[in-house]
Amino acid sequence: MFDISMIKKRWKRVLLTLGLIIATAHLYLTLFAVQERSYIREGRHLDSYVIQGTTAGQTFNLNKVTPKVTRVVAMDNDKNIFYKLNQKQLTTRNPNITTTSVDVSSNTSSTQDTTQIVNMVPEISYNVTHILIVAYIRSGSSLTGDILQQDPDSFYVYEPLHFTEKMGKKLQSVQLLNGKYVNIERKLFFNRAFTIINSYFDCNFSNLDFGTLVHGFQTFGNKTNKFIKCYVKKLGQKINKKLATQMCAVELEKMCQNSRFRTIKTIRIPMQYAEVYLKRYPSLKVIHLVRDPRAQVNSIVSLANTTRYNVGFAKQKCRAMERDHYFSEVYRTKYPGRIKRLYYEDLASSPIKTSESLYEFTGMNFTSVVRDYITGITSAGLSSCAICSKRANSSEHVEKWRLKLAFKDIQLIDKECMSVYKHYGFLPVQTEKDLSDLSIPLRKTI
Asked: 337 FRET partner, CA 20 to 30 A, in 14, 94, 292, 409?
């Protein structure tokens, strides 16, 4: 005779397994199969891609270059937000709160067209070190962030603003973990960005929205990836998405709170906003990651398989880099020992030496395990992964653009970026022969 109860148990296991597979597939289709138009704002980001997996490559579809954004909104906490537009300043949300203003934009250079930023954030003390990596698209930020998360005491968040910026073009509001709704329209991006970054730095995720928390980019963080795995598992147990997120966020907060170093990597925040966080977090260290604009353009061209936006992209990127240089110099003087300029070329050419200096700057422990990991990801691995940290040979990768870009395109980029070269020490290419002669340096030591 057949054992009916045994058959039912087996079918139940089959159905549970099938449900887990379907839930997992649904999650990864949602998180990784993202495809939309591309936008470049101030040379900072390029959002059109198809992510095929956590180590897969990207393909870009350049469609549009947006004009430079000159309206700047100074950010504060929920109690106070100041706007300074056309030299008029007004306060919203509780105007009775006393604040102080710090004008950091007395620049007399070409950055005068950027609206002044007003800073009025109260200082908060934490027994942790906060690290903010300010970078640009295709500047080596994935590699930098990955290196800095190898200290086991590090909590690393990869591009936490991507969901808000992307969905701000489509949605008016999103629901937060605490059940409230918040406006994420594009015009309010920097206000929302302030809350998101603070939430991760403070390990208080109640003000984060569900989309930000379960975004596929969070698989790039060693600890945030554990949250994603927890989320997938809960979905497989037929727990609804919101409850699954809330349950797993509890463990994520614990991992964050137990980490001495909290690192955020973003290509979506200009350097001028760094002072908001420097004032709020006395332990904050800012790493300003820079790469030769021509190398960045070449990387975009290679991914997009087009040269259509070479000049426009370079113009916007160099405009952003010029402003960031000014503010980074202001903050290096005002906050000594808390701002570090990192050249991708140095990290790729001398990964161990440069990584040691990064760990010294942040206070992290550069162990033999960390050293071995860095050696592995910079000397072997993938060469075609668009947003991965691994490179077949990172030192060769530094000069690759010189053998790929046409001399006439280089000349156009040099013309647009000449003032940036002077700030960062990059050198224009004089002749086509000089371009292909890799023994001739195109960056001077500053």
From this structure: 292
